[in-house]
Amino acid sequence: MSIAIIGAGAMGKGLARRLAAAGETIVLAGRDKDKVAAIAADIPGDVTGASIDQAANADVIILAVPYPEAANALAEAGPLTGKVLIDISNPVGPELSLAVGMTTSAAEEIQKLVPQARVVKAFNTVFAELLDLKLSKPDTPPQVIFAGDHEFANHRVEALIKAIGFEPLDAGPLKNARFIEPVGLMMIQLGHGLGRGSRIAPRFVEY
């Protein structure tokens, strides 16, 4: 399975490193092809740089740009018909407020932009720093909440989460991104607003 990551910020690079370490073939894509190619060259494994339109050739596409930039990035990528598109964004407004919600979500708005794609919400509750964690069997891995409307796409995303050593948590249909995204904002508030740092993640457990 080939994976394209649109966006070479902290999350994009972190996901590229971890997925490449898991043996996946990664295309890191951005508007400045030369810049992303240089970034890709510094990541161990099968990672190459590309323009955004070339990302559409991958089986799975991770949209790793800030939510305000999503529409332009997707316009460059094309219709993405039948592609699995993972939205990792948090719609952050002024003073760390929720810019989109609660009758819709960033993920649902992205699905409207590319209606032929299979959008899954995931990774928005995980800080980039956690993507560099070295985990062994006794360790408790970070939990990744995901939601989507397409069973095939959900299984693909669940498999990727497991491949990087994290724990998937299926949160149901894509409309439940309306609840997942506020959790992402809560993590930003805890980590940066309240000084807890970026080595924290939410976890749901049974008692």
TrEMBL record:
Q: Which domain of life is it from?
A: Bacteria
Please name the GO terms that the record assigns under molecular function.
oxidoreductase activity
Q: Where is the Pyrroline-5-carboxylate reductase catalytic N-terminal domain?
A: 3-91
Q: Which UniProt keywords apply?
A: Oxidoreductase
Q: What is the lineage of its organism?
A: Bacteria, Pseudomonadati, Pseudomonadota, Alphaproteobacteria, Hyphomicrobiales
This chain belongs to the protein called: Pyrroline-5-carboxylate reductase catalytic N-terminal domain-containing protein
**Xref: Pfam families:** F420_oxidored
Q: Which InterPro entries match?
A: NAD(P)-bd_dom_sf (IPR036291), P5C_Rdtase_cat_N (IPR028939), STEAP_metalloreductase (IPR051267)
Species name: Bauldia litoralis
